[in-house]
Amino acid sequence: MPRIKRDPVANKAELDKLRQRKLTRKQELFVKELVSNDGQITMREAAINAGYPPASAHVRAHEMTNPQYCPHVVAAIKEYRDELDAKYGVNFQRHLRDLQRIRDEALQNGAYSAAVQAEYRRGQAHGDIYVNKSEIRHGSIDQMSKEEVMKALDEMRKSYESSIVDVTPVGGSYEEEDEYDGKQLLQADSRRDEEA
Length: 196
Hints:
The protein is mainly α. The chain folds into three domains: 12-88, no CATH class; 92-126; 142-195, no CATH class. It has helices at 12-20, 25-36, 43-49, 57-64, 71-88, 92-108, 112-126, 146-160, 174-195.
């Protein structure tokens, strides 16, 4: 392709003629590679996959995506993108298909956790396979009366009474406290043994 600077206003007739031009086979392949692998490969890789030599692929890719040089290729890229968007726009079927593809690729690669997650998400998207239940509790200790708080504390004390050890200091020396604590632990152990 020529590398002369083009003035779009002065060469309007020439650009119109270029827009009417048919794509070459390599240009068609470039358009399909670029659009169908959108975001997965670079323009240079699309040009190489279309058959352009690797040494000049980045230049060819730039020229084919520049409306100054190849308006017919740019128009073909837009048309093909619109066609694929209409065909594969974000919808329920495409979502499920993509999740299935992700699952299959994960299984091939031995990524079983990813495969399970993809399959789980497919089931969630379907709506009636996995049901997500959650319990939301309203209320807190701030909303309880003093009597309700005391009653709840008493219930908790009774349910854990056998495993609670009173380590409140009774006064006196550390030796007396240690002796008292030891007695309390022995009493708690004996109560546990009796209950068992």
